[in-house]
Design a protein that fits this description.
By secondary structure, the protein is mainly alpha-helical. It is built from 8 helices and 4 strands; from the N terminus they run αααααββααββα. It has one domain.
C-alpha cells in the first residue's frame, strides 16, 4: 500500500468512526429528547435507499469526473454521494408517504466526515486527484511535482468545520428552526462552498468554465433552497 493510499484509507476509517460517533452523540444529546420524530421514519427501507443512492451517486459522478478529465479509472465523490443519497431517500419517502424532514439526524455526522475525510485527501497527495490548480499565494502546497497548488482539500475541511460548529451551537440551543431546516441548510452550505472550490481544481469542463461537480453542487443548493421554500409555504419537508 503506497503512502497516499494508506493516508486516504486511514482518514476514511477515522471519518466513518467519527461520523458514527457524532451521530449517536447528537441523537442521544438532543434529538432523542426533542419532539422531532425523525427516528420513527428511519428504518431498513430508508437505510437501503440512502446507502444505495450514496454508492451509485458517489461512484457515478466520481468516475465521470475522472473520464472527463482524461483519466481512465474508477472514482468516488462526496458531492455525488450526497446527491445520490438525497435522491434515494426522497424517492423512498414519496413511496412510503413520509412528508417530514428526516435529514437532521445526519447533519453533524456528515459535516465531521467531510472535515476529516478531506484531510486524508490532502495527505494522499497528487494520486488522489483532489488538489488545486497552481497558485502564487504563500499557503500554496507542493504535492510532489514542484508546483505550488491551492490546498482545496483544507479549504473544504475548514468550511465544514465551521458548519459543524454552527450546527452544534444550534442543537445546544434546541433551535426549532435548525431542527426543521438544518439538513437543507447543510446541503446549501456544502453545495455553495464546494461550488467555489471547484474553480480552483484542474478538472475537465462540461459547460464553459464549469466541471461536473459545479452541476452537482448547483443541484444541491437548488434542492436545499426549494425545500426551505416548501417548508415556509407549509408544504412539509
Amino acid at each position: 500500500m503506497t503512502g497516499g493510499v494508506f493516508y486516504h484509507v486511514l482518514f476514511d476509517i477515522l471519518a466513518a468512526l467519527a461520523a458514527g460517533g457524532v451521530t449517536i452523540f447528537v441523537l442521544v444529546w438532543r434529538l432523542q429528547a426533542s419532539r422531532h420524530d425523525v427516528q420513527d421514519a428511519v428504518g431498513l427501507g430508508y437505510a437501503l435507499a440512502l446507502v444505495s443512492g450514496a454508492v451509485l451517486g458517489g461512484y457515478f459522478f466520481g468516475t465521470a469526473n475522472l473520464w472527463l478529465s482524461g483519466i481512465w479509472g474508477i472514482g468516488r465523490s462526496i458531492a455525488g454521494a450526497l446527491l445520490g443519497a438525497i435522491a434515494g431517500v426522497e424517492i423512498y419517502k414519496a413511496r412510503a408517504g413520509i412528508s417530514g424532514s428526516t435529514g437532521i439526524l445526519f447533519v453533524a455526522g456528515f459535516a465531521v466526515s467531510v472535515m476529516i475525510g478531506r484531510l486524508g485527501c490532502f495527505f494522499a497527495g497528487r494520486p488522489d486527484f483532489t488538489y488545486g490548480v497552481a497558485t502564487s499565494l504563500p499557503w500554496g502546497v507542493d504535492f510532489g511535482d514542484g508546483v505550488m497548488r491551492h490546498p482545496v482539500q483544507l479549504y473544504e475541511s475548514a468550511a465544514m468545520a465551521a458548519f459543524l460548529i454552527f450546527a452544534l451551537v444550534m442543537l445546544a440551543r434546541r433551535s426549532r428552526f435548525f431542527m426543521d431546516k438544518g439538513f437543507y441548510l447543510l446541503t446549501i452550505w456544502y453545495g455553495a462552498q464546494r461550488f467555489i472550490w471547484e474553480f480552483l481544481k484542474p478538472y475537465g469542463k462540461v459547460i464553459g468554465p464549469f466541471n461536473i461537480f459545479h452541476v452537482v453542487c448547483a443541484a444541491l443548493v437548488g434542492y436545499g433552497a426549494w425545500m426551505l421554500v416548501r417548508i415556509n409555504r407549509g408544504q412539509g419537508g
